[in-house]
Amino acid sequence: MTLQLAWLLAPGPKTVEHARLAESLGYDRVWLADSPALWQDVWARMAQVAEHTHSIQLGTAVLIPSLRHVVTQAAAIATIEDIAPGRLTVGFATGFTGRHALGHKKRLPWAYVKWYVQQLRGLLRGETVEVDGALCRLMPSGGYMPPFPMEVPIFLAVQGPLGRQVAKDVADGVIMPSLFVTGGFDTCAVTASGTVLDEAEDVDSPRVRAAAGPSVARAYHTTYEARGDAVDALPNGRAWRESIERIPEATRHLALHFGHGIEMNEHDRAHVPMTGAKRLSFTGTPSELRARLADLEARGATEIVFGSAGPDMPRELCAFAALMQET
């Protein structure tokens, strides 16, 4: 198996510690997520990771264009490129929790994302670009930014045909959930989250619930946001939906996205069973997960971006690294 090994971290107080451990375990890349209402600032923590690691590749998975002016984004990228030359890849997407947690119910149009990426590339090459009707350019004094052009790879998180086409037009690679991997790209980073089970470990054990429960709950969050009562088809989905819909609509998004990816919120804890953990998350025994990894590689994955939760992140990092080393 030739999959590159990567880990996804939510920016927080232990991000640098976990990134350093990932580097020592042989991970090829560490990606930092971006959702300002839930976690710390991605670029502040990325700068620390860049300073305190040596060779591991870095990435953002994923930035949402509407959250930052493109010149601000370009300056942040230039900062990391100055600290860790050649190690940064930036991923962008149309937005899920990063927007929905702010009350924005719709994802960004792909045309907007495409134009934003084109503007960003121009800025990083030292070009003058039009932004919101005005001409903008990065114009640092000598020594304040790396020299132009800064050819930082840009990935897009895609699922459907429109996003895939935009990625072919303007991106260097794609980021996809495991369910949507169908090939067609030379570089395809696949996101997966859950936990590596010990042999005969119960999926409803406290450890597994803490580590993989947020990933299982994510299936309910994404299904509900995208298709409403279609979430009823998931185990105990109707009870979960009725619970969340008792929250007034004006503040429902705050309750829905609380804890996303880190912990199960009160509605998840009450109604989301762990019986579907192996199906709804990347959870299984080493042999089960190795089979799933082989399938992903056969379908076109080139990198696996694993994520987990719970209080023992070193255990999760070590367990997944050991699994990959055995393949």
Q: What average pLDDT do the residues reach?
A: 95
What is the total domain count? 2
How is the main sheet built?
A: 8 strands, parallel, barrel
Name the CATH architecture of the largest domain.
Alpha-Beta Barrel
In helices, the fraction of residues equals 40-55%
Q: Numbering strands along the chain, what is their spatial order in the largest sheet? A: 1-2-3-4-7-8-9-10
Radius of gyration: 20 Å
Portion in beta strands: 5-15%
* Unreliable sequence segments: none
The helix/strand class is alpha/beta
What is the number of beta strands? 10
Number of helices: 13
**Silhouette:** globular
Report on the architecture of this protein:
The strands form 2 sheets. An 8-stranded parallel β-barrel has the order 1-2-3-4-7-8-9-10, surrounded by 6 helices. The protein has a two-stranded antiparallel ribbon with strand order 5-6. 43% of the residues lie in helices and 15% in strands. The protein has 2 domains: 4-195 and 285-325, Luciferase-like domain (TIM Barrel, Alpha-Beta Barrel); 206-278, no CATH class. It has helices at residues 15-24, 42-52, 70-83, 97-100, 110-124, 161-170, 206-227, 237-244, 249-257, 266-271, 277-280, 286-298, 313-325, and strands at residues 4-9, 29-32, 57-63, 88-92, 129-131, 134-136, 154-157, 173-177, 188-193, 303-307. By secondary structure, it is α/β, with parallel strands linked by helices. It is globular and about 60 Å long. The model has no long low-confidence stretch (mean pLDDT 95).
